[in-house]
Amino acid sequence: MTIREHSVVNLALLLAAVLFIFLASGLTRTAATLPAIVAAITMVLAAAQLALDRRKPPPVETIRLEGVPERFLTLTLAGLLVALYVAGFVIALPIFAGLFWRWRAGASWTKAAALAAILFALLYGVITVLLRVDLYPGVLLQWLSR
After folding, report:
1. In the chain, what's the furthest Cα-to-Cα distance?
2. Average pLDDT, the chain
3. Does this model's pTM top 0.85?
4. Which range marks the domain in which residue 34 is found?
C-alpha cells in the first residue's frame, strides 16, 4: 500500500490534534474548552479525509497557487496577521476569507459576501456567544471600548 503525500499531512494533523487534546486536559476547564473543541473537530475531519483517501484518488484542486509569486503570498499572510492584530478574529477572518474566495477562487462578490457573513455568524454566534469563548478583539475594538 502506497501512502500519498497529502495522507501523510492528514495523519500528522490527526496526531497533532490528539496531542492538543492531551495538552488541553492539563488546563483549567475554561482555558481548555476552545483548544479541545478545535482539536476534536480537526480529529474528525482528518480521520474522515484519511478514510476518503483510502477509497478514491485525490480530487482535482480548484485553487491553484502555482505561478503566484512567493512575495505575494508572503504579503498576503503578513496582511492577515496585521488585520488580526488590528481588527481581531471576528472581523478580520470573515473579511480575509471573503476576499480570498473572491480573488483566488473566482467566486462572485455575492458569494464571497455570503461566505464572510456566514463565517462572521459562526465566529460570533457560536464561539463568542454560545460557547462564551473570548476571541482576541483587536486593538481597534479594545481602543473603541474604552
Report:
1. 60
2. 82
3. no
4. 5-55
